[in-house]
């Protein structure tokens, strides 16, 4: 069911939590980057693990959590990044997404942007 026919495109949603090591220390919900600059990677990972637990256990919906907590501008689309192919995303993000089954949620993925959980949607 690949939209490109060759199986080298995926579609995914993600939740990004930025931290003091992130390349850009600002986001739509923290334009000054104050919270982000004061957040350690460990704290970001802990928050993300708790959010993932809520999603996996059915307490929360991925898109609702993304729209509230994700530091990516995709938050307003429930974390949806749309379809993408290889070479379009940071390598760890791409590798994790292509390894997922549709509907599956990744463990914590580290990139220069911060820490993510990814749900493959297509």
Automatic annotation (TrEMBL):
<dbReference type="InterPro" id="IPR000297">
    <property type="entry name" value="PPIase_PpiC"/>
</dbReference>
<feature type="region of interest" description="Disordered">
    <location>
        <begin position="1"/>
        <end position="33"/>
    </location>
</feature>
<feature type="domain" description="PpiC">
    <location>
        <begin position="7"/>
        <end position="122"/>
    </location>
</feature>
<protein>
    <recommendedName>
        <fullName>Peptidyl-prolyl cis-trans isomerase</fullName>
        <ecNumber>5.2.1.8</ecNumber>
    </recommendedName>
</protein>
<dbReference type="Pfam" id="PF00639">
    <property type="entry name" value="Rotamase"/>
</dbReference>
<feature type="compositionally biased region" description="Polar residues">
    <location>
        <begin position="1"/>
        <end position="11"/>
    </location>
</feature>
<dbReference type="GO" id="GO:0003755">
    <property type="term" value="F:peptidyl-prolyl cis-trans isomerase activity"/>
</dbReference>
<keyword id="KW-0697">Rotamase</keyword>
<dbReference type="InterPro" id="IPR046357">
    <property type="entry name" value="PPIase_dom_sf"/>
</dbReference>
<dbReference type="InterPro" id="IPR051370">
    <property type="entry name" value="PPIase_Pin1"/>
</dbReference>
<dbReference type="InterPro" id="IPR023058">
    <property type="entry name" value="PPIase_PpiC_CS"/>
</dbReference>
<comment type="function">
    <text>Prolyl cis/trans isomerase with specificity for phospho-Ser-Pro bonds.</text>
</comment>
<keyword id="KW-0413">Isomerase</keyword>
<comment type="similarity">
    <text>Belongs to the PpiC/parvulin rotamase family.</text>
</comment>
<dbReference type="GO" id="GO:0005634">
    <property type="term" value="C:nucleus"/>
</dbReference>
<dbReference type="GO" id="GO:0005829">
    <property type="term" value="C:cytosol"/>
</dbReference>
